[in-house]
């Protein structure tokens, strides 16, 4: 069964683009579920509007990160989830999930890794006056934004750019490519 979980913490525009591709039958899946770690994030609203089952797990409701991830794993197993795609999930993945989903957790990041890891990737690209940035889709491992790279797409940075403008152009490419790479990964096994 090609069942996938998208993990998100915020706006969920990447989640939306994957759902759109699924609904348009461009991305052939048996099921998508959404996992969030923020009770009121907009991704949840998108899930409701698109009839996608969603679950929220809040770290502070647990005694440890291990228990938090164990609870997520229980849900993923119950839902028969085979792949996890992070899309703006603002938390490190730890051993519990990594062991259960070995080589089955993928992330999208708004820079050309290994440049500009972390949550301020777009601002750092601008601060460093690079003329090329972009996006990276990569496997997730113990280190932040450091797993094996699957796909990269360059995006030109202009002198007139600010965080908002560059974010918009990078995200446009994320929405175009993430579901296509998901499709390839799933078909490859
Ligand atoms: C994306 O730009 C992604 O690269 C990064 O977080 C952002 C999430 O945006 N990891 P959204 O929630 O999908 O709109």
Automatic annotation (TrEMBL):
Q: Which pathway does UniProt place it in?
A: Purine metabolism; IMP biosynthesis via de novo pathway; N(2)-formyl-N(1)-(5-phospho-D-ribosyl)glycinamide from N(1)-(5-phospho-D-ribosyl)glycinamide (10-formyl THF route): step 1/1
Matching NCBIfam families: PurN (TIGR00639)
Instruction: Say what the protein does.
Output: Catalyzes the transfer of a formyl group from 10-formyltetrahydrofolate to 5-phospho-ribosyl-glycinamide (GAR), producing 5-phospho-ribosyl-N-formylglycinamide (FGAR) and tetrahydrofolate.
Which residue positions hold the site described Raises pKa of active site His? 145
Domain Formyl transferase N-terminal, chain residue ranges per copy: 3-181
Binding locations of (6R)-10-formyltetrahydrofolate: 65, 107
EC number(s) stated in the UniProt entry for this protein? 2.1.2.2
What lineage is this protein's organism placed in? Bacteria, Bacillati, Mycoplasmatota, Mollicutes, Entomoplasmatales
How is this protein named in the record?
Phosphoribosylglycinamide formyltransferase
Pfam families linked: Formyl_trans_N
Recorded superkingdom: Bacteria
Q: Which PANTHER family match?
A: PHOSPHORIBOSYLGLYCINAMIDE FORMYLTRANSFERASE (PTHR43369:SF2)
Query: Is Transferase given among the entry's keywords?
Result: yes
Q: Which CDD domains did the record assign?
A: FMT_core_GART
Q: Which UniProt keywords apply?
A: Purine biosynthesis, Transferase
Its cellular-component GO annotations read: cytosol
């Amino acid at each position: 069964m090609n069942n996938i979980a998208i993990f998100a913490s915020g706006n969920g525009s990447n989640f939306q683009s994957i759902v759109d591709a699924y609904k348009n039958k461009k991305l052939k899946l048996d099921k998508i579920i959404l996992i969030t770690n923020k009770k009121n994030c907009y991704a949840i609203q998108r899930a409701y509007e698109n009839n996608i089952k969603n679950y929220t797990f809040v770290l502070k409701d647990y005694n440890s990160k291990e228990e938090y991830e164990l609870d997520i794993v229980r849900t993923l197993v119950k839902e028969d989830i085979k792949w996890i795609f992070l899309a703006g999930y603002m938390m490190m993945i730890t051993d519990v999930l990594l062991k259960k989903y070995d080589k089955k957790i993928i992330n999208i990041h708004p820079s050309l890794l290994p440049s500009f890891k972390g949550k301020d990737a777009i601002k750092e690209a601008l601060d460093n006056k690079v003329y090329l940035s972009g996006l990276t889709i990569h496997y997730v491992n113990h280190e932040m934004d450091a797993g094996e790279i699957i796909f990269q797409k360059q995006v030109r940075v202009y002198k007139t750019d600010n965080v908002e403008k560059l974010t918009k152009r990078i995200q446009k490419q994320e929405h175009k490519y993430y579901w296509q790479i998901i499709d390839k990964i799933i078909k490859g096994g």
